[in-house]
Amino acid sequence: MGKGAGAAGVDEPLLPEFSGGHGGGASVSGAVFNLSTSIIGAGIMSIPAAMRVLGVVPALVLIAAAALLSDVSVEFMLRYTGWASGPPSYAGIMGDAFGRRAGAAALNVFIAFTTAGTLVVYLIIIGDVLSGSAGAGDEHAGVLQELFGPQWWTGREFVILATAVVVLLPLVLLRRVDSLRYTSAVSILLAAVFMLITMGIAVYTLFTGTAKMPRMLPDFSTLASPFELFTAVPVIVVAFTFHFNVHPIRAELSKTSDMKSAVRISLVLCSAIYAAVGFFGFLLFGEATMPDVLANFDRSSGSGVPQALNDAARLSYALHLVLVFPLLHYSLRVNVDELLFPGRRPLATDTRRFVALTAALMAALYALAIAIPSIWTLFQYTGSTFAVCISLIFPGAIVLRDVHGIAKRKDKAMAAMMITLAVITSSIAIASNVMSSINGEVKGVNAVAS
What we know:
The chain is an all-alpha fold. Helix content is 65%, strand content 1%. α4 (56-81) packs across α16 (386-401). The radius of gyration is 21 Å and the shape is globular. It comes from Hordeum vulgare subsp. vulgare (Domesticated barley). This is Amino acid transporter transmembrane domain-containing protein. Residues 25-430 form the Amino acid transporter transmembrane domain. It is a multi-pass membrane protein.
């Protein structure tokens, strides 16, 4: 569906491995929308809580640093894509550096776990928004139950099933990433709407004197340990994990060389949205800011603020996740297919395999979303492992391995720094979360990981 694709282009495989990397006619703006949609997922909801732990200034610095490191890591990936002897994909350059079994398969597994867990989180949150959630002493009604009361069709199981079948399934059955450029544009608009609603409510509370003025720096008196600050680092890093969608989106650009510009525009745009949502969310809820700030909107967020405005914020976010879902599902499907059916013909050209795998994955995601009402604790650890490896450790390892001898000394120094920072901060964050769990405390903000 990209411009200039022609009749054959409609059925051109999504998989970059089989597109040859020659471009499919997609525009830079379409790439920016798809990249930005890949970046801004559920992770946006954890930014205010990260700001609560770190304070405004360190959090803003960390957002800028994470965006910069993401730009560097993607630049590494794109550079080695041009030299790779294998397919022009993330798995291809990993396989080129470390072998098909060790490198590419490891990446497939990490991406599959990360995207599957994130998609389950999306379904859970959509269910929370529409039908409400209960557990851990924090109960709140969903928008449908607020409007129509408890009914069989407002129940969590039916609402998630209806959303998955009627809304999500038609989107995930699209075979080209660029086909999602319009829904991606709408999803970015919805993220901006959520940001503006949050800002509007926060400004209103400022005028009414009910705002909780945010701290600029950490308050060590509220922390069980200074190491607890490190629990915010994986949250920010995970919020910029989009690397598994770089090659599919690049493969459909008219000029694949435009990908660097598209990545940088997307990172600037998403950094601005993260900073605004984090600051105004923290301003609005202060020390009561929850790991998933969306939960704060289920009750009055300020004196005189209509509940309808709170509901608008929740619904805009839920609809945003609905539109982000297809992009992540695409990556999940590609990586599971590579693991289960290596060497088979392109997935997008095998209708039976494409539909069967899509249906099986959707069924599995639905079952997990119903069986596990909350997986925040699980993501305290996956956010510090799988996603950090995908976004920082693996790109750095490719440069250090340097099988084509194209890395400069400064590139290897940067790669080593990326890996070191990722390992140290993630290890401290995991240790802090383990200690908090042992002590029966849930203070870390690493509860929403993408």
